[in-house]
Amino acid sequence: MNEAERRKKAAFLDRLAHWLDDRFAVPGTNIRFGIEGIIGLIPGIGDTATSLISLYLVAEARRLGAPKRIIARMLFNVFIDWLIGLIPLVGDIFDIAYKANRRNINLLKSHLAQP
Description:
- By secondary structure, the protein is mostly helical.
- The chain has one domain (3-113).
- It has helices spanning 3-21, 35-39, 46-63, 68-85, 90-98, 100-113, and strands at 24-25, 32-33.
- A hairpin with a 6-residue loop joins β1 (24-25) and β2.
- The radius of gyration is 14 Å and the shape is globular.
- The protein starts with a helix and ends with a helix.
């Protein structure tokens, strides 16, 4: 994959993370949430479904050449987000605050910015 394709894929993943974690704002506040916060409200399947999308981001980061250390951190972020997300109400609040996808994209962007 050449550099232009890598940049294009990274930009796509950044947009996906934006939609998942911070696309919408609560009016009059700095609170942002995304589709993950909405789908996560569905008991039992919501957090698992959004975790699968989060795992797609991790798989793409691996394809872009992220080292095992970064992939492990990304997987940990997804796991924590999924695990705590399973707890009713507390998990929903945590999903909005933790933003695992945004964290993971920032890890990937840091890696890709290195020469």
